[in-house]
Specification:
With about 170 residues, the chain is an alpha/beta fold. The protein has one domain: 3-Layer(aba) Sandwich (Rossmann fold), CATH 3.40.50.2300. Helix content is about 45%, strand content about 15%.
C-alpha cells in the first residue's frame, strides 16, 4: 500500500480530520478538497489512486465529480460516502461502474479500512490487467510481422495423437 495517494472530498474539514485519524496507521498520502472544483485541481497535479467523496456538496455532487473523474482520470478508483438515505444516484453510480463502493456516515472503522484496502487492490489489479493487455498486443504484433516475413511460421503440424511434427527438411 506504499505510495498510495488518497483524495478525500467533503465540505466539512472536520469530517476529513476524523477520516485522517481513522486511517493514520495506513502508509498512504492524504489530500483534502472542500469541493469538487478543488478536487479536480488536485487530480490534475497529483497522481491520485483513490478518490473518496461525500455525495452531498454545494456545486458538483459526489456522483457528478466521480463521473467527471472517470472520464478524465480513468485509473482513479472512487468511493462515495454519504450521511443521507438518497440512494438513487449512488446506486446508479455503483451500477454503472463509476463507484467501487459506497459508505454510510458515520462509518464503521473496520468497514472503512477494508473498503480502502479492497479499492487499492482493485486498482492494482486494473493496472496489472492493462499492462498484460499491452504486452499481449506487443506479442500479437510481433507474431503478425514474423508471419508476414516467414509465412506459415506460426502454424504447427500435429499427428493423430497430438504430437508436434517437425519438418527438418523444409
Amino acid at each position: 500500500m506504499n505510495d498510495v495517494k488518497i483524495l478525500f472530498v467533503d465540505e466539512e474539514e472536520k469530517v476529513f480530520n476524523s477520516f485522517k485519524r481513522e486511517v493514520s496507521f495506513l502508509p498512504v498520502d492524504l489530500y483534502y478538497a472542500g469541493n469538487g472544483e478543488e478536487a479536480l485541481k488536485i487530480l490534475e497535479e497529483q497522481n491520485i489512486d483513490l478518490l473518496i467523496s461525500d455525495e452531498r456538496m454545494t456545486g458538483i455532487t459526489g456522483s457528478e465529480l466521480i463521473s467527471i473523474v472517470r472520464e478524465r482520470f480513468p485509473m482513479v478508483v472512487s468511493i462515495i460516502i454519504t450521511g443521507y438515505a438518497d440512494f438513487d444516484s449512488i446506486i446508479k453510480a455503483v451500477n454503472s461502474g463509476q463507484v467501487c463502493k459506497y459508505i454510510l456516515k458515520p462509518w464503521n472503522k473496520l468497514e472503512l479500512i477494508m473498503t480502502i484496502k479492497n479499492a487499492i487492490e482493485y486498482k492494482r489489479d486494473k493496472e496489472l490487467i492493462l499492462n498484460l493487455k499491452s504486452q499481449l498486443r506487443e506479442k500479437e504484433d510481433l507474431l503478425s510481422s514474423l508471419e508476414k516475413r516467414y509465412p506459415g511460421i506460426s502454424s504447427v503440424k500435429k499427428d493423430k495423437e497430438g504430437n508436434v511434427i517437425l519438418d527438418l527438411e523444409g
